[in-house]
Design goal:
Layout (H helix, E strand, L loop, with lengths): L12 H19 L2 E4 L1 H17 L4 H7 L6 E5 L26 H8 L3 E6 L11 E2 L3 E2 L15 H8 L6 E5 L5 H7 L2 E4 L17 H6 L1 E6 L5 H8 L5 H4 L11 E4 L14 H18 L4 E2 L8 H9 L7 H4 L9 H9 L7 H11 L7 H21 L3 E6 L19 H9 L3 E8 L5 E8 L4 H15 L10
Parallel strand pairs: 2-3, 2-6, 9-10, 9-11
Antiparallel strand pairs: 1-3, 4-5, 6-8, 7-8, 7-12, 11-13, 12-13
Length: about 475
């Protein structure tokens, strides 16, 4: 359902809300995407929205201007605070923590009439690309329940694909919006650096670089819904820089693309079905708009893993093992590994392994760390000059379609196709482009220069027009 359908008298908010509640009750036993709900409170808010519209005390123009999302239900991941709801980030020791106030992004949506409906599942502490944790369990892909939904906004990607809410809000520090969008066949946008408040997001970044890498953004089934959501949640101080109301002609956008592997060690090769997407995209732009996309081969992408790791290195902030205790000491790795063998640990195996790896990661000031920081700045400048103010770079979002559950453990670095964009601090939109030979969603990400998010949106809408965008799941959910 498009956002514009709600609140204009076509259907009532209560009708829409009830349909999503019933849908969630139908799909959640199979998919496990929702971890908490506020159905009763949401229905009261929907009734109030309907009564306000029926009263006629506010004109339709005023509603469109000040309450454009009046009565529209949405969901968000369980690491973004919603007042009165759990705020666990998939961490067992946070199971009783209740958010005292809304995250800024939730508050902004409420201010324009939107209604929070439910929270969706994440990976433990939002640091893995399969959404599973000891507290809430594992989320399954609506196209094949044997497959992953991605992480850490995996529950959100899943509920959007399965039509469980109007739109969702996710967060992304290494692809946590775009990978779930890819695996679940929806649109997802990681914003430009520093334009959307992160207040109310847990865990919080532990360095200035992490602060710049992390972005909160929209997840939805229709490309045209990205912009109205984005306008609501973006900081007012960034509006002028973003030029969101500028008319963007697709014929004025320069298209660059890299369809080949990043050539990183221990990273999978691009699947043929995904590589073929670039041929289809190039053919479309040539025939429809007389645009000849230019192929590039960025050699510095080979250092993507090292660059991302350097970006994630904390300064003097807590290490991952400390964050797993909710900053109450640090986990005993040996004990937790032993408990994991007997399936009594309160942490996932991957979280324990991440703690071990974190201890051996480069420290700020180390020669390797400094080298990767320098390489990041050079690559950032190289790509910024390439794209300019009127260009986008189209890249694979992920090398394969959704893998089977637990398979990411043997392919841990495949996230880097998205992660490199975070450390470069560019905006990027994942665009679904149909299904592969296994019936699973595939697509590409559109990257632009900082503050040129509008170019990502324009190309996303063009690709949706050309190739259809989101494809409803065929699994009986």
């Amino acid at each position: 359902m498009d956002i514009a359908v709600v609140g204009l008298g076509n259907v009532s908010s209560v009708q829409v809300l009830n349909s999503f509640i019933e849908r969630i009750k139908e799909i959640n036993p199979l998919l496990n995407c929702v971890v908490a709900n506020r159905f009763e409170e949401a229905l009261k808010e929907a009734q109030a929205a309907d009564e306000l519209i029926r009263s006629g005390t506010i004109s339709e123009n005023d509603l469109a201007l000040n309450k454009p999302f009046l009565g529209v239900p949405f969901t968000t991941k369980d690491c973004i605070a919603v007042k009165g709801m759990i705020h666990t980030s998939g961490l067992y020791c946070r199971q009783k923590i209740i958010a005292a106030e809304d995250a800024d992004v939730i508050m902004r949506l409420r201010n324009v009439g939107a209604i929070p409906l439910a929270l969706t599942n994440v990976s433990e502490l939002c640091m893995w690309w399969e959404s599973a944790n000891v507290l809430h369990g594992r989320t399954c892909n609506p196209y094949d329940t044997n497959r992953i939904v991605g992480g850490s906004s995996g529950g959100e990607g899943c509920i959007q694909a399965a039509v469980g809410s109007t739109f969702g809000i996710g967060s992304d520090i290494g692809g946590s919006i775009r990978m779930p969008a890819f695996f679940n066949g929806i649109f997802g946008h990681k914003p430009s650096e520093g334009i959307i408040s992160q207040k109310g997001q847990y865990p919080t970044p532990v360095s200035q670089i992490q602060q710049r890498m992390l972005g909160i953004g929209p997840m939805c089934r229709r490309a045209k819904d990205i912009l109205p959501i984005f306008k609501v949640i973006v900081d007012k101080s960034a509006v002028d820089k973003l030029r969101l109301d500028d008319k963007t002609e697709i014929t004025n956008i320069k298209i660059y693309y890299q369809d080949c592997d990043l050539n990183c060690t221990m990273v999978s090769h691009i699947n043929p079905d995904i590589r073929h997407l670039f041929t289809k995209i190039n053919t479309h732009f040539c025939k429809a708009h007389k645009i000849v996309p230019q192929k590039v081969a960025i050699s510095r992408f080979r250092n993507s893993v090292g660059m991302w790791m350097a970006g994630m290195t904390p300064d003097d902030g807590p290490r991952f093992g400390e964050q797993l205790t909710n900053l109450n000491g640090s986990i005993n790795v040996s004990l937790e590994l032993l408990k994991c063998l007997f399936r009594v640990s309160k942490h996932t195996f991957i979280a324990i392994v991440t703690t071990i790896l974190d201890r051996f990661s480069p420290k700020p000031g180390d020669s390797k760390h400094m080298y990767m920081v320098k390489e990041t700045k050079i690559l950032q400048r190289e790509l910024s000059e390439l794209m300019g103010d009127d260009g986008v770079l189209i890249l694979p979002t992920h090398p394969t379609s959704a893998p089977y559950h637990n398979e990411p453990i043997i392919k841990p670095l495949n996230f880097i196709y998205t992660g490199i964009v975070n450390v470069l601090e560019f905006p990027a939109t994942h665009c679904p482009l149909g299904l592969d030979s296994h019936g699973l969603p595939i697509g590409v990400q559109v990257v632009a220069n900082n503050y040129n998010d509008r170019l990502c949106f324009a190309v996303a809408e063009e690709l949706e027009r050309a190739f259809g965008g989101w494809v409803p799941p065929t699994v009986d959910v």
